[in-house]
Write a structure and sequence with these properties.
This protein has about 80 residues and is an alpha+beta fold. The chain has four helices and three strands. The protein has one domain: YefM-like fold (3-Layer(aba) Sandwich), CATH 3.40.1620. β2 and β3 form a beta hairpin. It is elongated and about 50 Å long.
Length: about 80
C-alpha cells in the first residue's frame, strides 16, 4: 500500500468535522491537526491488527480539544448515590 500524504486541518475544523474525518480515515485518508499553525496531532487509519494504544491516544488527544462542561446542581453524592 502506498503512502498517502497527510492533509492539514485546524483543531477547530477537526472538532466540527470529527465524524466526517473518521469516515475519511477509515477509507485511508490521513490528517495532521494544527493549532495556531503548528502540528499537534495526527489521525491515521489503524492497520488490521493495529495498535490499540495508538487509537486510545488519538481519542484522548481529541477529547482534550473538547470544552470542559460543568453541570450546575450536581454533587459528588448525586453521582455515587
Amino acid at each position: 500500500m502506498g503512502h498517502t500524504m497527510d492533509r492539514a486541518i485546524t483543531a477547530s475544523d477537526a472538532n466540527q468535522r470529527f465524524s466526517e474525518m473518521l469516515r475519511e480515515v477509515a477509507r485511508g485518508e490521513r490528517f495532521v491537526v494544527t493549532s495556531r499553525g503548528r502540528p499537534v496531532a495526527r489521525m491515521t487509519p489503524v492497520e488490521d491488527g493495529g495498535d490499540q494504544a495508538a487509537a486510545t491516544l488519538a481519542l484522548l488527544a481529541f477529547l482534550e480539544t473538547r470544552p470542559l462542561r460543568r453541570l450546575p446542581g450536581w454533587t459528588r453524592d448525586d453521582l455515587y448515590a
